[in-house]
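Example with several molecule types.
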Amino acid sequence: MTIQVEHLCKYYQVHQKEPGLIGSVKSFVKRKYADVKAVDDVSFHIDAGEIVGFLGPNGAGKTTTLKVLSGLLYPTSGSARVLGFTPSERRKEYLSKITLVMGQKQQLNWDLPAIETFLVNAAIYEIPDAQFKSTLDELTELLELKPLLNKQVRKLSLGERMKCELAAALLHRPQVLFLDEPTIGLDVTMQTKIRQFITEYNERHRATIILTSHYMADVTALCRRVIVIDHGRMLYDGDLHALAEKIAPHKLIRVEFSETLNGHRLEEYGEVVKTRGQRAELLVPRDATSGVAARMLAELPIADVTIEEPPIEQVITRGFEEAARARAERGESDEDEGEED
Amino acid sequence: MRYVRLLGIFYKYSFLSELEYRVEFLANVFMNVFWLAWAIVSVAIFFLHTDRLGDWSWPEVLMVVALFTLFSGVMEALLRPNVGAVLDQIRDGTFDFVLTKPVNAQFIASLRNIVIWRLSDVIIGLALIVYALRQMDIVPTMGQIALFVLMLFAATAIVYSLWLMMVSLAFWFVKLDNFTELFYGFYEAGRYPVTIYRGIIRAVLTFVVPIAFVTTFPASALLGRIDQTTTMIGFALAIGLFVISNRVWTFALKHYSSASS
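Resulting structure tokens for the full complex:
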């Protein structure tokens, strides 16, 4: 077992401010503090070599969990063990076996070519020369770094910089990777490249990887297992596709008609997502799927029909939207929990 | 040993990144000369009206100005780009990268960078000291020079420790710019011999924010007019503050909350 997290909690004390000038003055004089439960009783185990995706809306506690695991934050209660170490002790042996990549923060020296930062990291991590050379060669090949290494970082594009950031973070061949939004702000081609690289790295080195991303495509492409966190609480831990089935209340019926419809209203059968010529897609409640399909076959001139799971990205996005709506109806606000931006 | 090697590497790359900006380099040297002239003028102005400031003569006061310049060099070259930069790193979250490295965090945070051209202040300060000593026909003994050097190290330790404690507070309060400004305000007071101040201000500058140990007392050491008690207090203060600041820092790290991504 590589990562063991038991009943992990991380609360922040945040001062609360009423809006407006008077509120600001009040909070300047006397502050009201409230506990924000960024992570609230989260437990999970991850085996060596697994890639696990953390899903959840902004401020759900994903980043906070990663920060606790990489030793940046002390847990309020509960425990985390990674590779047999307690992260918050920040032991040298531990820190040289892990890495933390944050899509929105950079460690590369802005004014120097990336290779210079690599050399500094080589010294910090005490990487032997031969190993440094072979690792760098490998990363250069996988990430196509050759033309980038000797350019000042400030002259690189966002995507090029991210590739160099990844390389800088992996020079010491960490066994455990914490990737926080590694593809944020990148174009689709670059996202795909980074994804391919992560898969490749995982296969070559049997590295354990936890990934958070706003892009569902990252998660569907990389992770078989996902952990869903919302408002600090863990909602789901398991297979990605099983999650879709569990939270998707609908199935997708795709039909092709043998002739143009007239007189029949498709809305009677379900929520129409798309119609184009003689084709249409409908969302139908999961339990009613077979009944509706049978009725359509009987009543409409159908050439072909398929029943599918709706696209997973759509399902999960919807799932979060509905959860947020349900909370709003119960009168809980979204802002008093989660991390600040 | 490993840490010495790391220092070498850190400073090499620090130097390299400064070479990226040649014009800034020249502008900075020009600024240094300007600030020195300003420091001398601001003291010389008193001597248009009097020959003595407290019980300090013109060349003696010049020594204090020289130390003020010299120590500004140390601060700007070594302290501000390191301890001073921690505040910004905490705010923009890049301090995370310091904490995830398998090297003592205080070491990286305190010695990672050097602004090499600012060491020119140290050289200018030393030259001014030599000039002032010539004016007075004083040749310090080896013992006095050794004591002077030790007191400089003590001064660096004192200022470093105060700064580190201040920065540690930032782990709770995040935005502390005004605090740094306040500190610089006190430091400005160090351009005059502390003996010209009276009563409470003098006590504050000696014991609360011990700027006296940074400029006045090292100068006194070279002039041979320092007593043993003051010296001992200086060293005790340096060691004591260093130890305490290390504790405060370690304690503060536990409360680090890391700016969100």
